[in-house]
Amino acid sequence: MQTKSPLSPQCPLAVTSIQCKLVAVGRPITGALLSLMAALVTTKVFSHSQLRVRVPLGFVAVLVVLASRFGPIVSVVGAVLSAMVFAYFLFPPLFSLRVEDPAARENLSWMVLSAIALSYLLFPPRKNPLGPSR
Fold first, then answer.
1. Burial letters for 107-126: b for 16+ Cβ neighbours within 10 Å, e otherwise?
2. pLDDT digits (tens, 9 = 90+) for 62-119
3. Counting beta carbons within 10 angstroms of the beta carbon of residue 133, is it exposed (0 to 12), middle (13 to 18) or buried (19 or more)?
4. What number of other Cβ atoms are within 10 A of residue 17's Cβ?
5. Which of 20, 108, 123, 132 shows a CA-CA span of 20 to 30 A to 43?
6. How far apart are CA 97 and CA 110, in angstroms?
């Protein structure tokens, strides 16, 4: 009788389960940090541009690309983090999460909603690579 190995096929038998779990946790954290860094760079580039109100709508493409590589949950976390970065550093009043411009507020909302929707529609969540919990 054949028994199922507790380790996933992605983790060789020589690698411990703890290492596999660290990799599984590290990937989403890496994706979230990448989205945060991309939002900060985008804020710096467009801080004095007339197009800054439309920046969140274009940033959806970055979040969808990150979702394709790291999974849809990264896009959700990245959308929230980038919305906070844009509100704090890009839209007046600066250094406050309050956004006075109604168009900028709408675009931030649309960014978060569309990034979440597109990420889950295009890249549904993968099954747990570590197998079922025991």
1. bbeebbebbbebbbeebeee
2. 999 999 999 899 999 999 999 999 999 999 999 999 999 999 999 999 999 999 999 9
3. exposed
4. 13
5. 123
6. 17
The pLDDT of residue 61:
94
User: Can you say whether the dihedral through the CA atoms of 43, 59, 69, 27 is positive or negative?
Assistant: positive
Q: Which two tokens stand for residue 56?
A: 């969140």
Check residues 20 and 79 and name the one with the higher pLDDT.
79
pLDDT at 15 over 80: no
Measured CA to CA, the distance from residue 34 to residue 29 in angstroms comes to 9
Cα–Cα distance for residue pair 43/91, rounded to 1 Å? 9
